[in-house]
Amino acid sequence: MIFGRSERAKPPVEPVTLKILVAGGFGVGKTTLVGAVSEIKPLRTEEYLTEAGRPVDDTTGVEGKHTTTVAMDFGRITLREDLVLYLFGTPGQERFWFMWDELSEGALGAVVLADTRRLGDCFAAVDYFERRSIPFLVAVNCFEGSARYPEQDVRGALDLDDGVPVVLCDARDRRSVRDVLVGVVQHAMDFGAEHRQTVTT
């Protein structure tokens, strides 16, 4: 009761839940990104690298990496009271790519995480999302000691369409990752609206 009048409780908001993929090459920072922003303890399926995998796991440039994702990473972030993102990090090595079809089912969009020292490692992810018309943006993970390149240079090296956003980020920083996720949601919405308009005209 407030001043003799009962206050009606607001009905609980049923949030919209959206699925976002985080893809990219081996050791680019996908697990770190999901962990940096997730409001729940992230699910990780990491295993130690072994001698048996050495011939197929190229650790050039990431020699300090001792584990690898073998299925997926999973996390959750609430962007607004009515909007929740479920994040699915894909495995980076080619032998685990069969998981991508399962993980991409029902995805609104994707983040392709890139390392400018090994830019070619994200070609497979770019090609995958282009072929399936899944909207994505490229987030360049700014590793310490790595060179910074203008957006147009990254876009040209990856042969991206003009409509694909390219942003810089720090996969360790929650605010930076949150900005990337807001960007991919906005891009996916614009992408969907554009394609609906194309169909109706």
From TrEMBL:
Q: Which InterPro entries does the entry mention?
A: Gliding_Motility_GTPase, Gpn, P-loop_NTPase
Q: Which Gene3D superfamilies does the entry link to? A: P-loop containing nucleotide triphosphate hydrolases (3.40.50.300)
**Domain of life per record:** Bacteria
> Has keyword Transport?
no
Alphabetically sorted, this entry's keywords are: GTP-binding, Hydrolase, Nucleotide-binding, Receptor
Family as reported in the entry's similarity comment: Belongs to the GPN-loop GTPase family.
Q: PANTHER family, alphabetically?
A: ATP/GTP-BINDING PROTEIN-RELATED, GLIDING MOTILITY PROTEIN MGLA
Q: What is this protein called?
A: Signal recognition particle receptor subunit beta
Source species, please? Streptomyces achromogenes
